[in-house]
Amino acid sequence: MSVLLLLISALILIYLGVGGTTAALVMSIATLVGVFQDEWHLASVLFGGLFLALALILVIPSELRLDKFSRPLLGWVRSRLPKLSSTEEEALKSGSVDWDGELFSGKPQWSKLLDARPAHLTSEEQAFLDGPVEKLCAMLDDWKITHEHYDLPDKAWKFIRENGFFGLVIPKEDGGMGFSNTAHSEIVMKISTRSVSAAVTVMVPNSLGPGELLMHYGTDEQKKHYLPRLAGGEEIPCFALTSPIAGSDAGAIPDKGIVCKGEWNGKEVLGLKVTWNKRYITLAPVATLIGLAIKVYDPESLLGDNADIGVTCVLVPRETEGVHAGARHLPMNTVFMNGPTWGNEVFIPMDQVIGGQDMLGKGWTMLLECLSIGRSISLPALGTGAGKVASLATGSYAYTREQFGRSISQFEGVQEALEPIAGYTYMMDAARLLTSGMLDRGVRPAVPSALLKYRNTDLMRIVINHAMDVVAGRGVITGPRNFMARAYNAVPIGITVEGANILTRSLMVFGQGAIRCHPFIVEEIAAAGMEDEDKAAKKFDGIFYRHLAHTTRNALRALVLGLTGGLLESVPRQGGIKSSYRQLARFSAGFALMTDVTLLSVGGGLKARQRLSGRMADCLVQLYYASAVIKQWHEEGYPDDQRPLVEWCLQTCLRDLQHSMREAIINFPVPALRWPLRLLVFPLGATGLNGPDDKLGTRVAASIVEDTPLRQRISRGVYTTMDPDDSLGRVLNAYKLANETADMRGRLHDAVRNRDEDDLDGIALLMGHQRKELVDWACAEGVVKADECDKLEEALTALYDVIRVDAFDEEGLKALSRCAKGKRKVVERPARD
Predict the structure, then answer these.
(1) Quick one: 619 and 634 in the same domain?
(2) Last residue of a domain, which of 340, 370, 400?
(3) Is the pLDDT of residue 441 over 90?
(4) Whether residue 386 sits in one domain with residue 364
């Protein structure tokens, strides 16, 4: 009995997270009670005392624990911890942890999520969106940009440079707009709904580039000289990281700078002789200031004994002798400026190193810190914008398009496609705002930025594909009428750039998160790396047993919450979504447990177990996106009209989370651990989380079809026009007229259905005079009133116009061919100048 009571009390204490002297006292009392119950039986005293002594050794720090347990364990742990390259060590040191750390803890504190300051815009930022951003969007005709001019119009370039679009995040004191990260995201998102090419042109100088690097790391002289020029558009920046061989792996780039002396402005100065060959560099063809990531070497020991200094970020003015740029890539027929740049032994002074000579070799840290910012904003905003415009346009088109005498939005097959368009768009927007809110609070979310970029661009692909299915042939024919083609073309760009999604999912999200966000692993790695064995053992002793309790607690929580459906978990009451909170808490515990088991069993081999890492990344993604949806609904005051969307998102996340976690367990690389994990995480089997049912899916599909405030909420931030000659405006105008004439058209359809065959030979809407004849007949028969006829004819004309596609005559195709002609050039590394 003494051992049993001791075990029960220990498990309860671990489950509740109670430790230290309190835990020691409770376990001692439980053991004594057991001994009394056994009437001081010798076996009870011996075994109870033995197990109590062992428990107290584990709970209370002592020299005995240090020498007999911690020191041997430290050696074993050193063999299990992943071996980190210098690049990976820098990655772990960069950025900070926020809500992602709570999800890795196994017991997320929901108050931290709900009480955190949300993303918001100032009145000045909103005015910029309503003013200059609207004006810029109105200047843009994406068909002409992508198929006729292969560039933004000159007036757009001028407007961008003169109105601060290149200095959105540069502080006001340096000539910039000084906007928040949320404003940056909203601006990029809105422009992207009009033209992806224009959005990329604006977003790149404001994310990872010379401006961002100079703000954080530049010398006072560099900031004073460059930031006002960048903010005012006098300088157009680009940043060149990607090389043909190494891709974006800064640790493997062959581009180099050799420390030497050379001539600059007529004087001999210390500097770098830089050789580089980069590709896929946005704005490189027009950049006046080229940022480069290179590796610096000092073979002549001009700076000291260290010959291999490391990754460094430098600035090279375009007019510097030996700099090559100007040729262009065409990324999937979007025409933002993108191309290669190269140079061979181009000399620059040390003043051109970002941060000066003291920052030599610190470029990777600089890049990682800034990448977590840019990656959190640019492409997630682009993906969300695509989802919003797809929701607005496709919902409108589905309502206006009729087949078999009724709107295709009433077909269940079409609703099945509209449902994820609406749901995933809401989900993308929530995750985008959660992360931009973190940035505005000063967080540098390294792991959330990676998972957000990966998931939002992946959802963009899913949403756009569904939208193309709905618009069908209307979306296939390229031309100025097509409102989906350019977004469809842009999908692979988002998937690929700023970290290809395959690698981001299978290496970065969980690979970095398992260490960076874990409450103990980073400290254990630090302890294991200490050279002083005594200090290492003491530091490790103070961490390991808390880690052991953490793992045990999460195993118990996963089991208990799995058996009870999370009923024992205390969760917020707001919103009436307690069951979702409980399931998320349960899976957070299971996720934390599996993280520890993975690190324990796979250890340094995690990088080679990319299927496992990818599935665990998917688990984290679903936990994060479900949290984001809850946060967004909370910030908007739990409006009831959003409840179907919120429930759809949460049920979808939980279903996909269960699937990913189950797949991770079934395919766990250590077979002996599969059944214990399955028992702890899924004690009752993987049941009950089947995702949204058809009834809920129908309501979600209707949210982008019916003309309600909810539809406006989903598409909030889209640039809209009612111009019937505009690709999107044509659809929105037809949608408006269709709603206004719904009753008239219903009467007309009923009348035609019951007509005398001699009176009217069918509804032929192909020709304008036929539509007029139909309306005249309806007026004559009293189907519609006289004052309704013009409106009805206008609506019928718009409804036909919205389904028309472009057709080019021979001269039109010749004109397009003339616009597209250019000299093809395969750019390789040039010979020495």
Answers:
(1) yes
(2) 370
(3) yes
(4) no
Question: Looking at the structure, do residues 493 and 530 belong to the same domain, yes or no?
Answer: no
Catalytic-role residue among 102, 235, 498, 524: 498
* CB 30, CB 75: distance < 8 Å: no
Q: What is the pLDDT of residue 338?
A: 95
266, 719, 787, 281: which is closest to 497 by C-alpha? 281
Q: How confident is the model over 128-143, as a mean pLDDT?
A: 97
Q: Could you tell me where the beta strands, DSSP code E, fall in 298-364?
A: 308-317, 323-325, 338-349
- Reply yes or no on whether 498 is catalytic: yes
Residue 517 falls inside a structural domain: yes
Quick: pLDDT tens for 786-798. Answer: 888 889 999 999 9
Residues 567 and 92: their CA atoms lie apart, in Å, by 36
Q: Are residues 346 and 476 in the same domain?
A: no
The whole-number average pLDDT for the span 290-307 is: 92
pLDDT category of residue 522 using cuts at 50, 70 and 90: confident
- Judged by phi (left if over 0) then psi (alpha if -120 to 50, else beta), residue 823 lies in beta
Is the same domain home to 180 and 112?
no
Which of 573, 572, 581, 584 has its CA nearest to residue 621? Answer: 584
Residue at 272: amino acid letter: L
Q: What is the mean pLDDT of residues 248-268?
A: 86
Q: What is the CATH number of the domain that holds 466?
A: 1.20.140.10
- 216 is written with which tokens? 């954080």
Single residue among 344, 370, 396 that ends a domain in this structure: 370
Question: Are the C-beta atoms of residues 353 and 312 closer than 8 Å to each other?
Answer: yes
* HSE-up (13 A, CA, CB side) for residue 552: 17
Q: Kindly report the CA angle at 462 between 582 and 387, in degrees rounded to 5? A: 85
CA gyration radius for the chain? 31
Residues 133, 279 within the same domain:
yes
pLDDT in tens, 487-514: 999 999 999 887 789 989 998 899 888 8
Q: Where would I find the H helices in 636-691?
A: 643-666, 674-681
The reply to whether 84 falls in a domain is no
Question: With bands split at pLDDT 50, 70 and 90, how would you rate the model's confidence at 762?
Answer: very low
Q: What are phi and psi of 104, to 5 degrees?
A: -75, -15
Tokens of 506: 């299978």
Tokens, residue 680: 């702890």
Residue in the structure block whose two tokens are 């969307």:
645
Could you tell me what percent of the chain has a pLDDT over 90? 64
Is 292 a residue whose pLDDT tops 90? yes
Task: For residue 586, give its domain range.
Answer: 513-693
Q: pLDDT averaged over the chain? A: 88
Residue 52 pLDDT exceeds 60:
no
Say yes or no to pLDDT of 33 above 60: no
The answer to whether residue 807 is domain-embedded is no
In a shared domain, residues 346 and 402: no
The residues near 636 (Cβ < 8 Å, ≥ 6 apart) are 642
760's enclosing H/E stretch is none
How many structural domains are present in the chain? 5
Residue 356 sits in a domain whose CATH number is 2.40.110.10
Q: Report the alpha-carbon distance of residue 364 to residue 367 in Å, rounded.
A: 5
Helices (H), 356-498: 363-400, 412-440, 446-471, 473-476, 485-496
Contact 607, 548 (CB under 8 A): no
pLDDT in tens, 181-240: 999 999 999 999 999 999 999 999 998 789 999 999 999 999 999 999 999 999 999 999
Top mean-pLDDT range of 26-40, 196-210, 760-774:
196-210
**CA–CA separation, 641 and 30 (whole Å):** 53
Strand 256-264 with 289-297, pairing: parallel
Spatial CA neighbour of 536 closest among 89, 65, 64, 70:
70
pLDDT of residue 38: 55
Query: Does residue 735 lie in a domain region?
Result: no
Q: Which residue has the higher pLDDT, 231 or 12?
A: 231
Residue 238 shares a structural domain with residue 285 = yes
